[in-house]
Design a protein that fits this description.
By secondary structure, the protein is mainly alpha-helical. The chain has eight helices and no strands.
Length: about 200
């Protein structure tokens, strides 16, 4: 079960989840911020970003994987791109919900003293949302780790491709052994992530 190829598949799965979540989180925060009325006072910019967010959120991870497998071919790059966009969808949505509930007094105070929009966001908005945002990033990593196994079944890299390989050869004992090992890895990661998320929020 734990052959060199299986180890490589596990490592690739972790890499996809880490990189997809990291890059997605970097893009998700400004997308969420500038989709608010105080983040983007310009109505056209704000409406455009909200439309973009809606489009990204409308597609599930598996569909993103299928699209990128068709566009760039089978392999880890398709999985990375799928998890990147899926991370944007999850993290920007959760962050947007938090932004809707922040205190407006610091924002109004920043505007009153003549702070630029960037200064106001940095001093009045980000301190309020950062703990929740970091928690959402950890949650996104949990989701992406599980999703990486599913998208691999359609050729987007990771442990899913190895599971499909064993299935195709009818090696059910190896397949179930790999699934159980993956479950244990996900369980441990989820417990660690939950511990840190509870401390943040």
């Amino acid at each position: 079960i734990w052959s060199r190829r299986s180890r490589s598949a596990f490592i690739e799965t972790l890499q996809l989840a880490v990189l997809g979540t990291t890059f997605g989180a970097i893009v998700a925060l400004p997308l969420a911020l500038y989709a608010t009325d105080y983040g983007a006072p310009n109505r056209i910019v704000r409406s455009g970003l909200r439309l973009l967010n809606s489009v990204i959120r409308s597609l599930p991870d598996l569909l993103w994987a299928l699209l990128f497998v068709s566009a760039v071919g089978i392999g880890a790059l398709s999985g990375l791109l799928a998890l990147f966009f899926f991370s944007i969808a999850v993290i920007s949505k959760l962050t947007s919900d938090t932004l809707d509930a922040i205190y407006r007094d610091p924002i109004e105070a920043g505007v009153a003293v003549g702070a630029t929009n960037t200064e106001m966001l940095r001093t009045a908005v980000l301190p309020q949302v950062m703990p929740s945002y970091v928690s959402f990033v950890l949650y996104g990593f949990e989701i992406n780790l599980r999703a990486s196994a599913v998208i691999g079944l359609v050729g987007a890299g990771g442990i899913g491709e190895r599971i499909q390989f064993f299935q195709g050869r009818g090696e059910w004992e190896k397949l179930w052994g790999l699934v159980i090992l993956f479950f244990l890895v996900v369980f441990v990661v989820e417990r660690i992530s939950t511990f840190f998320r509870r401390r943040l929020v």
